């Protein structure tokens, strides 16, 4: 007689052992919704529900946050630092590779890691993917948490799914009410068993071949406690000291000085790293345009320091031919490459890069020089060209305030490219006027959720956007 | 909150973008149209507008929505429109509860309702593309599954991506917390859900709101949906 089957809360606690500090965790319907309740006061991980709430806990914890619903329609409350967004932005977070772990409750998982989402044995063939597809395709690790068997006794783990699948080769680890199984390229490996169970008993209720790990363990259910990783850096130099040579850097800003990370730009110059490729609305024209005094800080300081080999920009040159920008001069000397992209296309390419859209058809530029060399396509009688998503290694952005978790608010048109660029880089560094505690920014007012932000620096109050010379 | 004037007898049924009943705000909705309906798990659903749609009586509708049921049996839902025979097709990531069933499942099983199942993020992206003038997008979601059948597939970064086309509709029925008379909108909590995306993707966008303010009554930093997307507003009777 096998041991008792685990209850949802024990399963959720075992799932929580797969998390780590700062992890971004997407939660599907059903059993995954128990997870926040098992980490009651935890601000150290980001839970995401496809209903549009980021950073929340179950209502059994403290109820100070703003009420909302999770993926399953259950009432939850935001943690200090939690925020709201819409479904299209959640989809971008999920698909764009911003989640570390997706936790789903499939109805069936195959030996190859295929899965079938929300259905029942009784309603097989009636299938509801919800957001499980986006969660599964976007996350680094996919955890399936599910009963080992249907109530009828049939196994939920099968050699090949016999219902329409919602993802192919996707699941990495299966946590059931009886066991933990890893999905390896060679097949399924039983790595843990629930208390009171033997490996043979688990194999007997599993319809797919299982190999037993040489290091088979008993499942444990300790309550985890994660500390949010520190994102606050003391100086711009410290926040950018590890930028590798040849990096692609997204630099925010519109045309004038507003919304530009001047302090980080100086930091990047002082780090001195070479062969940078900048993606930015301008290639540094604030100094040469009417927007600022001649000594205002812009991209020019990087160009003059021989750090830039390429710019991708929509306003790469100065509006005045008699006052060329540093980038123009370098370009005219043959020292830099230039890719000109219309502003809306630049924004869309960045948004695509951040949201997991590899390429898109836009009407902008069709039939012009800007469409040369690009695929043209007519869709429903309209001409489009194919543009690709843009991503970066680092991104430097300018916010007004951030909390220590990295949530950012902007001020006026300083918002410009900042929110979209924040989604595009491996490492996003934000410069703000003020850092506040989580909870001081209202959930409805947060524009860039902290899960996009890796490093935060305060622009010193005595810092000037103008060079001394 | 602005006091919206009572409907003056014999005068027009609206004041600028503000309409005096859900029915009048749905003027022009016709048989065979495609209608976006916002809402997620009972939150942010335009129930007055759904009742208005029932009253308007348009039939053979194609509805695009998250789901069709709520947890509260007193709610008026898409399921009720399906039960009354107004709906020809539903495009949704989760059209009915697989265990509890309901009128949508019944209509589908008896062949009276067509269903198109689209993963949530794919549907959101298709509506966003439609609203933002993008013809189509290559995305990885659903590659090598039934969701990719019959669609063009290309490889980017060593991974299969599926071409999904932009999607637009005739009407969008939305639910917001507050509006100004120009149509700028703010939402509350997870009631935001599909509303901002759907607001971009329809020819005529109608919003049910709890309160209508004068322009300037909403903080410009907090406006989520800009007035240019919004055509008609109606106050929720339940607010």
Descriptive report:
The complex is a heterodimer of chains A (469) and B (239). With 469 residues, chain A is of the alpha/beta class. Chain A has two domains: 8-218, Glutaconate Coenzyme A-transferase (3-Layer(aba) Sandwich), CATH 3.40.1080; 236-458, 3-Layer(aba) Sandwich (Glutaconate Coenzyme A-transferase), CATH 3.40.1080. Chain A is built from eleven helices and 27 strands. Chain A has helices at residues 8-16, 35-38, 87-95, 132-138, 199-204, 236-240, 262-271, 300-304, 326-332, 343-355, 418-421; strands spanning 24-27, 46-49, 53-58, 67-69, 75-84, 101-104, 108-110, 115-116, 141-146, 157-158, 173-176, 179-184, 187-193, 210-218, 248-251, 276-280, 308-313, 337-340, 359-362, 376-379, 382-388, 392-398, 401-403, 408-409, 425-432, 434-436, 455-458. In chain A, the strands form five sheets. Chain A has an eleven-stranded mixed β-sheet, with helices on both faces. In chain A, strands 18-17-16-15-22-25-27 form a seven-stranded parallel β-sheet, sandwiched between helices. In chain A, strand 4 (67-69) and strand 5 form a beta hairpin. In chain A, helix 3 runs parallel beside helix 4 (132-138). Chain A starts with 7 loop residues before the first helix and ends in an 11-residue tail after the last strand. The model of chain A has no long low-confidence stretch (mean pLDDT 92). In chain B, 53% of the residues are buried. Chain B has 239 residues and is of the alpha/beta class. The N and C termini of chain B lie close together (12 Å). The longest helix of chain B has 13 residues, at 120-132. In chain B, strand 5, helix 4 and strand 6 form a beta-alpha-beta unit. Residues 1-5 and 7-11 of chain B have low confidence and may be disordered. Chain B has a single domain (17-235), classed as 3-Layer(aba) Sandwich (Glutaconate Coenzyme A-transferase), CATH 3.40.1080.10. In chain B, strands 1, 2, 3, 4, 5, 6, 10, 11, 12 and 13 form a ten-stranded mixed β-sheet that branches. In chain B, strands 7-9-8 form a three-stranded antiparallel β-sheet. Chain B has six helices and 13 strands. Chain B is globular. At the A-B interface, strand 4, helix 3, helix 4, helix 10 and strand 19 of A face helix 5, strand 7 and helix 6 of B.
């Amino acid at each position: 007689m096998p041991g008792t089957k685990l209850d949802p809360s024990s399963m959720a606690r075992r799932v929580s052992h797969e998390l780590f500090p700062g992890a971004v965790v997407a939660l599907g319907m059903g059993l995954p919704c128990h997870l926040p309740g098992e980490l009651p006061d935890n601000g150290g991980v980001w839970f995401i529900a496809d209903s549009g709430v980021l950073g929340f806990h179950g209502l059994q914890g403290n109820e100070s946050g703003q009420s909302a619903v999770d993926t399953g329609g259950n009432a939850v409350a935001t943690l200090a630092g939690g925020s709201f967004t819409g479904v299209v932005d959640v989809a971008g977070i999920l698909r764009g590779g911003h989640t570390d772990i997706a936790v789903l409750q499939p109805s069936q998982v195959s030996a190859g890691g295929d899965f079938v989402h929300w259905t029942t044995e009784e309603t097989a063939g009636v299938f509801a993917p919800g957001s499980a597809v986006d969660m599964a395709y976007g996350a680094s690790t996919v955890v399936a948490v599910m009963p080992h068997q249907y109530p009828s006794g049939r196994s939920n783990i099968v050699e090949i799914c016999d219902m329409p699948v919602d993802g192919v080769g996707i699941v990495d680890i299966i946590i059931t009410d009886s066991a933990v199984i890893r999905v390896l390229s060679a097949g399924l490996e039983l790595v843990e068993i629930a208390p009171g169970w033997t490996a043979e008993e688990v194999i007997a209720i599993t319809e797919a071949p299982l190999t037993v790990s040489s290091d088979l363990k008993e499942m444990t259910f300790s309550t985890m406690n994660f500390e949010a990783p520190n994102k606050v850096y003391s100086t711009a130099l410290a926040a950018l000291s590890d930028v590798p040579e040849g990096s692609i850097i997204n630099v925010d800003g519109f045309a004038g000085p507003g919304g530009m990370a001047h302090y980080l730009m100086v930091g990047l110059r002082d780090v001195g790293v070479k062969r940078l490729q900048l993606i930015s609305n301008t290639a540094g024209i604030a100094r040469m345009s009417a927007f600022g005094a001649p000594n205002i800080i812009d991209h020019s300081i990087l160009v003059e320091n021989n750090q830039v080999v390429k710019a991708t920009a929509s306003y790469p040159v100065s509006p005045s031919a008699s006052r060329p920008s540093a980038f123009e001069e370098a370009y005219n000397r043959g020292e830099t490459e230039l890719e000109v992209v219309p502003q809306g296309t630049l924004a869309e390419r960045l948004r695509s890069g951040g949201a997991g859209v590899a390429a898109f058809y836009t009407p902008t530029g069709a039939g012009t020089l800007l469409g040369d060399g690009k695929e043209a396509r007519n869709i429903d009688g309209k001409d489009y060209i194919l543009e690709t998503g843009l991503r970066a290694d680092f991104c430097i952005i300018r916010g007004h305030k951030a909390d220590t978790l990295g949530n950012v608010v902007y001020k006026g048109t300083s918002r410009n490219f900042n929110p979209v660029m924040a989604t595009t880089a491996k490492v996003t560094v934000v410069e703000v006027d003020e850092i506040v505690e989580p909870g001081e920014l209202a959930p409805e007012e947060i524009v860039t959720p902290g899960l996009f932000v890796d490093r935060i620096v305060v622009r010193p109050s005595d810092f000037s956007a103008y060079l001394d010379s | 909150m602005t006091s919206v004037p009572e409907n003056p007898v014999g005068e027009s049924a609206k004041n600028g973008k503000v309409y005096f009943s859900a029915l009048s705000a749905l003027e022009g909705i016709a048989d065979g149209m495609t209608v976006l309906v916002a809402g997620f798990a009972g939150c942010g659903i335009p129930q007055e507008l759904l009742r208005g749609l029932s009253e308007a009586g348009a039939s053979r509708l194609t509805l695009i929505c998250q789901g069709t049921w709520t947890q509260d049996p007193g709610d008026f839902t898409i399921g009720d429109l399906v039960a009354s025979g107004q709906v020809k097709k539903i495009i949704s990531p989760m059209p009915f509860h697989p265990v509890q069933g309901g009128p949508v499942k019944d209509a589908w099983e008896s062949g009276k309702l067509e269903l198109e199942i689209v993963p949530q993020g794919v549907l959101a992206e298709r509506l966003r593309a439609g609203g933002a003038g993008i013809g189509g997008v290559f995305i990885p979601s659903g590659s090598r599954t039934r969701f990719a059948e019959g669609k063009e597939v290309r490889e980017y970064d060593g991974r299969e991506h599926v071409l999904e086309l932009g999607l637009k509709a005739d009407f969008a029925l939305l639910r917001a917390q507050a509006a100004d008379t120009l149509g700028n909108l703010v939402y509350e909590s997870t009631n935001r859900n599909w509303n901002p995306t759907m607001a971009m993707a329809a020819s005529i966008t109608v919003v049910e709101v709890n309160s209508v303010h004068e322009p300037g009554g909403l903080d410009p930093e907090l406006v989520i949906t800009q007035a240019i997307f919004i055509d008609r507003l109606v106050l929720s009777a339940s607010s």
